[in-house]
Each structure stands twice: as C-alpha cells, then as structure tokens.
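S.,

Sequence below, as promised.
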Amino acid sequence: MNKREIYQLVLMVFGLIFIASGLTHAFDLEALRNSDLKTLKYVPDQILVTFKEGVADSIKAEIHKNLGALKVRESYGKFYHVVTVREGGVEEMVKAYSQNPWVEIAEPDYLRIAYFTPNDEYYTYQWNFVQINLPLAWNKSTGSGVTVAVIDTGVNPNGEDGFGSRLLPGYDFIWRNNNSVDDNGHGTHVAGTIGEETNNLIGCAGVAFNADILPVKVLNSWGLGFSSAIIDGIRWATDNGADVINLSLGAPTSVVSQ
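The prediction came back faster than expected:
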C-alpha cells in the first residue's frame, strides 16, 4: 500500500473523528463558545473534496467551476481540496461532488471537540497505570527513541514537570504557523499523560516518559475545530517523524448519531 492509499484509508476511516482550522474561511471558531454544539454539525460554507488518483489539475478546476465553488484551496500535502460553497449549501454540494466520476470522496468539514479530562491534581493518583501493567512494561521500554505526535490544542512548553528537550518543534494548523503553544490546557494534559518528566518527585508519571513529544495544534482555545486541520495535522506529523499519533478528541452527538 503506497502513501496515497494509506492517506485515503485514513481519510475514510477517520473522517468522523478529525478536525480543522477555522481561520481559513469566514466561519469564526471562537464564536462557538456560546453556541449550541448539539445543533452545529459542520462548517456551514465549506466541504472537503478528494479527487481520484491521476486526475489532471485542469479537470479539477473545471469541476469546481461547473459546480459553483466560491473558493478552493489545497490542503497540506495537496491531497484534497477545501472548497468554499454558499452558506447552507453544504449537503447539496457534497451530493453534487460525490456524483462526479472524478471525485473519490466529498464530505462536510465536521465539527470536532476535545474529549473531557478532569482537572484534579494527580488525577486520582493514576490508578489506571497498574491496570495496564505499566510498571512491568517500563522494565522493557520507557519510550526512548519513539516520537509521539499529540494532535490536540497544542502543548505548553513551560511548567516544572514538563518535557525538557523531548518537546519537539511543532505546528499550529489553526493559525498556520510554527507556534504550537497550548492556549486551552487539554493538549498539555494529554501530552503529560503520555510523556511528562518522571522519577523527579514532581507531579505525576508519564506512560512513555522518555519518548519525544511532537505537538500539532488543530483545536482552538475552546477545544474546538473542524475536520480539515486534523487531516493536515496527521499528514504533517507523519512527514515530520511521528511514530505514534494520539487523538484524544471526538465529535458532538449530532455528528456521531448520523
């Protein structure tokens, strides 16, 4: 299976758990903090389109023109197109693109949200580590030589029980720059569970405390995002040395129930 086939499989399987940047279109992610997340399913004026392998750029452009796309941009890695459509026309345009013989996949840019995590100090003293036999596993490996991408709200580099030099330079697919600092806390919590400094008499222990952490920010300060950024984030992570990818996120019930 080649890289493109792997990516297409990822897109189809994880299309219902992926996230995206809200700053590449007019829709404002920050406004969602006062919205009813049970009713909002996806970006109201944007869809994701993947063409079949080998389709010429001229044919893609003609299809976009004929179907009335308002704006088109390529994703990271140029594997799919982010297409701006008229507001309220998402389902109609998904159907129209899906019926075109040159199109592999067309789907809405679904809303995603970070899974809930408790904010209690020491998180009940991490009783779960014993249940998954971590003390025994640590005799075999502590994650040394492994890079884990945390695709989330970013990772905070500060803190007394952080990651040291194991925190690698990351990327922000919300603002589309190299600043992957966490402005929510969820991603840092997840990264800490994976690999925070351990055996230092501070805070908690990490599951793989010698692994490198690669932060990829795809959720905003409220833990919200859409499908396109997480797809880009996964591709970017694989291109930048990730051996393991962590996704502690999901979808509102309105999307899951479909």
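Residues 19 and 28 are 14 Å apart (CA to CA).

Coffee later?
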